[in-house]
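In the laboratory, one determines a bound structure by crystallizing the protein with its ligand and collecting diffraction data. In a computational setting the workflow is compressed into a single prediction: the sequence and the ligand go in, and a structural description comes out. We illustrate the idea with zinc ion.
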Amino acid sequence: MPLFGGIEAGGTKFACAIGTEAGDIRASVRFPTRDPASTIAEAAAFFQAHPEPISAVGIASFGPIDPRLGSPTYGYITSTPKKGWAHTPIAAVIGDRLGVPVAFDTDVNAAALAEHLWGAARGRDTCLYLTVGTGIGGGALVQGRRLHGALHPEMGHVFVPRAPGDTFDGCCPFHGDCLEGMASGPAISARWGQDGASLPASHTAWKYEAHYLGLAIIGFVLTLAPEIVILGGGVMHQQQLFPMIRQMVQSRLRGYYQVPAITSAIDTYIVPPTLGDNAGMLGGIALASAVA
Ligand code: ADP
Ligand code: ZN
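The predicted complex, in structure-token form:
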């Protein structure tokens, strides 16, 4: 059975895996993200050291990226504020090193694909995957296809009305108080002076979090009509957020959007990822198996 490589290129860490098109992982490695040259070299070395060859590699990358085939900067990480990483031709470097076809997409589009093939979104052709971590990002499959277009979705940077009483300025370097600026992990730390992981479940931080995420999700649901919404990323380890966000979505939609999953089974509509921390690298394997 042919083997495929998957790379989750994250701003904090890289995760690489070798697996089958059925999503069986045969080997994997994780290491911190450093400068582009040494980090990409370490990823390539992992695949080269494996005794069996891979047929293709898929890169699920932090962004913004250029996923437009035929564009002069296709396969680049483009205008990222992450130091040293702007304008990095990651797909070409990996392809040259490994000599195999390369598939390339956002980490969240790839995670949506992996959850569709092997996880919570099985059987749902239109699904949304949102990550709430160092940044906020959303990816989607729409009628079975990963959502692209002018570029790719950048759902973390939409603007949402302020939560009553929230005076925080926001921490997005581009927009200040966009969704990411108000509700990412760093936004929580900056607003409250401590990491979200150390705040109690009853803290006001989570009311604000449910407000921003709930209102943004309403916008995404009304725009994309997903059949399921998957919420991943470090901040969503706060399990108490799920019922709070579901309640926000239901109450603010006010029964307007007549989808039984939302009006009467929202516990199965807004859900955690099934693939957990493996969603990104499995997404890479899924991308690779489609280009080989
Ligand atoms: P990345 O975004 O780099 O891929 P994560 O999804 O793990 O990584 O997100 C990291 C962010 O999530 C950090 O800002 C961290 O403070 C926050 N975070 C991680 N774990 C928790 C937790 N249990 N509760 C709240 N926030 C968390
Ligand atoms: Zn922003």
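The pocket of zinc ion (ligand 2) is lined by residues 157, 172, 174-175, 178, 180-181 (CB under 6 Å). Keep in mind that any predicted model is a hypothesis to be tested, not a measurement.
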